Amino acid sequence: MSATREPITRFEGPAVAIARDNIDTDQIIPARFLKTTTRAGLGANLFADWRRDAEGTPRAGFILNRPEAAGARVLVAGWNFGCGSSREHAPWALVDFGFRAILAGSFADIFRQNALKNGLLPIALPADIHGPLVAHVAIRPGAVVGVDLVRRTVRLPDGREAAFEVDAFARECLLAGVDEIGYVLAQEAAIARFEAMR
Amino acid sequence: MRTIIDKIWDAHVVSAPPGAPSLLYIDLHLVHEVTSPQAFDGLRARKIRVRRPDRTVATVDHSIPTTPRHLPIADAVAARQVAQLEANCREFGIPCAGRGQPDQGIVHVIGPERGLTQPGLTIVCGDSHTATHGAFGALAFGIGTSEVEMVLASQCLLQHRPKTLRITVAGRLGPGVSAKDLALAIIATIGVGGGTGHVIEYAGGAVRALSMEQRMTLCNMSIEAGARAGLVEPDDTTFEYLAGRPAAPAGEAWDAAVRRWRALATDDGARFDRQVALDGAALSPMITFGTNPGMAIPIDAVVPAPSSAAAPADRQALERALDYMGLEAGRPLLGTPVDVVFIGSCTNGRTSDLRDAAAIFRGRRVAAGVRAMVVPGSALVKREAEAEGLDQVFLAAGAEWREPGCSMCIAMNGDQLRPGQRAVSTSNRNFEGRQGPGGRTFLASPATAAAAAVTGAVSDPRRLS
Ligand code: SF4
């Protein structure tokens, strides 16, 4: 497997929390921003309708409008993050905004796949770690969280470490910077054999 | 002993290296304008072609206006996106049903109506409602744009074998209770994340008795329960629907296909990872009151009180939803005034759905102050409905009869709610802002939507038919 992307191993950065379950991709990036034909610039409209009211005025209370959100790298959220539409614009917007990992109770299937393909780590934490973390970061936005993909651990703001599980193949690809499409294209002979057999 | 899900999976594994996802062969790839441009750019950057343009079919549906087709697309950004798809299809040799073409329509409506969607196939599309095609006993699921690129490039996907969930619905749905009501009842039962990681097989007498259109409605909503795919094993209802469709096999090939298709059924004693059972006869028409499809209640029930939720997070979610929707806990939804009614989408935009709606509209008028939009799911649905005179029923009632597309289901084409407006919609998502920023969506069946249009309020369609 050849490396074609920036490998991801470990990083740390400020975290912010949106303490809600079932955050759907229509919230992450509303449909009216899907008319673009590129991946670029979607971060400006990340959570557009939670960030701005109908007149376009920023909602002061929303976390991404607060100074502590500047430079945020980690988003902490509730259960079933990324449900709904399959739009890959959701991870594109999160990455463009600056996020590199989402720490949640669980993820919707399509979002998890889409995130991994864009170097955005969807990290599902066990309930006993997740609940207190959401509560902590909600009160202290900007608290620093570390992610170590090599050791499969996160370092919580209080310094403790917690292990997480991640798909072994996706992890290898991220660590080595492998392009999955290139990996599949290299199996052309097997694909052609399969087609000839049917 | 294998489930239908295992059988389709096993027949499509190109390779299954240990410790890595399987390489799964894709029989049919459906493409639309919103989730494909970046994938085609990827192919150009790699300097490669679409591997199997003959297994790829494109159409425009999401961002096109539903106004008369001779008018240009007023939104320049949408116009560029549509032109981009058409140019990509020309460049890569993919058939594309463009705007104004006789075979254009919502991607999940045109696959089945052309006979492209067949039992036993693997079908993907950059769209989460690809589950619709599971109605034919196909393994069909939504993918992201990177995966669209992978399938265009290789006709394959990297996938882990999904877990299996069988939902058995016994009995028969009562009069006035449709597949949409069943879908909402299932999601309310297992939750919007209840099917995560699973493919659902819908089984039982109530499912067997559904028409193909109704099975499509049911499978369509699988993703709203978190399941990427949902399917129904093929039977005579399936074969009857498929026979004679343009892309369906014919002659001897048809007989051989039917034999193959019958063998797909789940073996007796096959094991599912999870099973859920429901009584179809106990169901009423359903409607959502909140901001996800799991927040659904029988139409004559009262809005649940947040205090009734056990977990604090659920309590907060309910409070937030009621606040957004402008509803009061403990009050009936019946009688809640509505501003807009939307009938259409890949969930309920087929001819039989329009018939259900027309049965309520016939001889009645849309209530004063209500805007009722009927949007056929495809150009073929539009022709069929017009041949039956359904368009005249809608127009006589004072409803709008529009051109095919996704329209107000996703509200990216100009068809949308204004902030605070209430809509009863036959589509599939009631997320905040889904039908326009600040808009409030109540999901329901075509009959319930039509009943709201003619009464101006949330109403039980059984009292009108
Ligand atoms: S009708 Fe709605 S749900 Fe269906 S494909 Fe179009 S936008 Fe998606």
Structure description:
The complex is a heterodimer of chains A (198) and B (465). With 198 residues, chain A is of the alpha/beta class. In chain A, 44% of the residues are buried. The mean pLDDT of chain A is 95. Chain B is of the alpha/beta class and 465 residues long. In chain B, the strands form 5 sheets. Chain B has a 5-stranded parallel beta sheet with strand order 5-4-3-6-7, sandwiched between helices. In chain B, helix 6 links the parallel strand 9 and strand 10. In chain B, 33% of the residues lie in helices and 16% in strands. Chain B has 3 domains: 156 residues, Aconitase, domain 3, CATH 3.30.499; 99 residues, Aconitase, Domain 2, CATH 3.40.1060.10; 177 residues, Aconitase, domain 3 (2-Layer Sandwich), CATH 3.30.499.10. At the A-B interface, helix 4, helix 7 and helix 8 of A face helix 2, helix 3, helix 5 and helix 11 of B.
Properties at a glance:
heterodimer; A: 198 residues; alpha/beta; Aconitase, domain 4; 7-stranded mixed β-sheet; 8 helices; B: 465 residues; Aconitase, domain 3; Aconitase, Domain 2; 3 domains; 5-stranded parallel β-sheet; 33% helix; binds iron/sulfur cluster
CATH top level of the largest domain in chain B? Alpha Beta
Distance between the termini of chain A: 28 Å
Low-confidence regions of chain A: none
Please give the radius of gyration of chain A in angstroms.
18 Å
The third-level CATH topology of chain A is Aconitase, domain 4
Oligomer: heterodimer
Give me the number of helical elements of chain B: 16
Q: Going across the major beta sheet of chain A, what is the strand order?
A: 4-3-2-1-5-6-7
Mean pLDDT of chain A: 95
Distance separating the two termini of chain B: 45 Å
The secondary-structure class of chain B comes to alpha/beta
Question: In percent terms, what proportion of residues of chain B is strand?
Answer: 15-25%
Q: What's the story with the biggest beta sheet of chain A? A: 7 strands, mixed
